[in-house]
Amino acid sequence: MVSDYWYISVDPYRCVGTGICASAAPQHFALVNDVSTPLAERVAPDQAVCDAAECCPMEAITVRDRDGRIIAPEP
Amino acid sequence: MTDIPQVSPARPYPFSPPVRLDLDPTYAELRRTQPMVRVRLPYGEEAWLATRYADVRTVLGDPRFSRAASVGRDEPRMTPHRVTGGILSMDPPEHTRIRRLVARAFTARRVEQLRPRTRHIADELITRMIDSGPPADLVTAFATPLPITVICELLGVPTADHDRFHVWSEAIVSTTSLPPERIREYRDNLHAYIAGLVAERRTAPRDDLISALIQARDQHNQLSETELVQLIAGLLAAGHETTVTQIPNFIYTLLTHPDELARLRAAPQLIPTAVEELMRWVPLGVGSTFARYAREDVDLGGVRIRAGDAVIASLSSANRDETVFDDPERLDLTREVNPHVGFGHGVHHCLGAPLARMELQVALAALIDRLPGLRLAVPESELTWKSGLLVRGLRSLPVTW
């Protein structure tokens, strides 16, 4: 799993710009015109990405593994 | 390196005692002339106050500003006592570790499932008002029981105990309405009560949030027992002190803006947009609190904030910023572009925001639907407002229909 990657996506239609992800994980998310945007879509596994996805009240953030399985948020 | 001269001494803050839902014009003047200003709150050390929208969002959302750093400082505050602990005194990643446990119960999707039940409760309360006949006090007959019933059912707190914990919850929003020793006593009572419920649910779990949080603590060791009790007490108290207050604030605002109310009655599909505009326009807070501390020197709003300086951010002022909102003083229930910060911004963005939105939408929809002739039962000048709290709200709202 050392060389594994995670994939981050943000649904801009769900995002309401709370800024939770961008301040909890500024190394991964930024608000661009009030909409969250991943700084990189492919990232090394990082708990902060999952925490941000779990904390999003709109469930706008999805974290997947390289096989497309959803890692966060939990259903 | 030359220090930026301190032009004027710290101003006492809040600038004036709260009057109804009027926002002190000093904010508009400061946004224009001195967007970062030194202030002194009733207790604690001096702070910077941010009044412009962009600066407010930076203070609340930029990781260079910390809530955790307030622990151990003489935090600027409205209350003689210090409020420490809880997720509002944490930064990521500790904050996120705890917030994620409870955030799942408050997503827009999960809260949407509570909408039919919430409408049912609202309808029952209105039916009771109709059966008793007008006039009625909207605060006690409707605005108080609605959010309390919803948050109790969600958490798994017996609604029958509401008389007790409703009294204690005032401690969470009290500044001077209660003497300091009473605030401590109520807070302790609330925590002891929640600890009792936690012990009960640990023996006999149910399908409720308290049981789910206990499971998270016991199986994954993700929460300390104190964190667990503080979190639930916070959810219970915040889950009703705010919405209980905002429903009457919204209805009062609509009844005193008859043209806007008429638009809403003619087009109830505007209710979600109207709730956002009311969240923007109603200055719920009396002043601002929960100071952030700069972790490093930050240039903001034309001043240099030094590492270790305290900064407070005015949500109400940001929501009236003329560079963001057209005609910001005007209540416009059809306002389309409305990135208000009524629920805050950044990691501490209101955890209950989706729940509050849903409850406020349901409250307005039910009242507009069932009581089309709703109006004040007394002249506006006779309405009485609460004092000594962190929030503005009506003591009672006598209405007829």
Mean pLDDT of chain B: 93
Distance between the termini of chain B: 67 Å
Given helix and strand content, the structural type of chain B is alpha+beta
Mean pLDDT of chain A: 93
User: What's the Cα radius of gyration of chain A?
Assistant: 11 Å
What is the β-strand count of chain A? 6
How does the major sheet of chain B shape up?
6 strands, mixed
Low-confidence stretches of chain B: none
Euclidean distance between termini CA atoms of chain A? 23 Å
Amount of beta strand of chain A? 25-35%
Shape of chain B: globular
Low-confidence parts of chain A = none
Helix/strand order of chain A, N-terminal first: EHEEEHEE
**Strand adjacency order, main sheet of chain B:** 1-2-3-9-6-4
Outline the structure in words.
The complex is a heterodimer of chains A (75) and B (401). Chain A is built from two helices and six strands, in the order E-H-E-E-E-H-E-E. Chain A has 75 residues and is of the alpha+beta class. In chain A, a hairpin with a 4-residue loop joins strand 5 and strand 6. The radius of gyration of chain A is 11 Å and the shape is globular. Chain A starts with 5 loop residues before the first strand and ends with a strand. The relative contact order of chain A is 0.30. The mean pLDDT of chain A is 93. Chain B is of the alpha+beta class. Chain B is 47% helix and 8% strand. In chain B, the strands form three sheets. In chain B, strands 1-2-3-9-6-4 form a six-stranded mixed beta sheet, with helices on one face. In chain B, strand 7 and strand 8 form a beta hairpin. In chain B, helix 8 packs across helix 9, helix 8 packs across helix 11 and helix 9 packs across helix 11. Chain B is globular, with a radius of gyration of 21 Å. The N and C termini of chain B lie far apart (67 Å). The relative contact order of chain B is 0.19.
Strands, helices and their partners?
The complex is a heterodimer of chains A (75) and B (401).
Chain A: E1 6-10, H1 20-24, E2 29-32, E3 35-38, E4 42-43, H2 47-55, E5 61-65, E6 70-72
Antiparallel strand pairs in A: 1-4, 1-5, 2-3, 5-6
Chain B: E1 11-12, H1 26-33, E2 36-40, E3 47-50, H2 53-61, E4 65-66, H3 94-103, H4 108-112, H5 115-132, E5 136-137, H6 138-143, H7 145-155, H8 162-173, H9 180-203, H10 209-220, H11 225-255, H12 258-266, H13 271-281, E6 292-294, E7 298-300, E8 303-305, E9 310-313, H14 315-318, H15 353-370, E10 375-376, E11 398-400
Parallel strand pairs in B: 1-2, 3-9
Antiparallel strand pairs in B: 2-3, 4-6, 5-11, 6-9, 7-8, 10-11
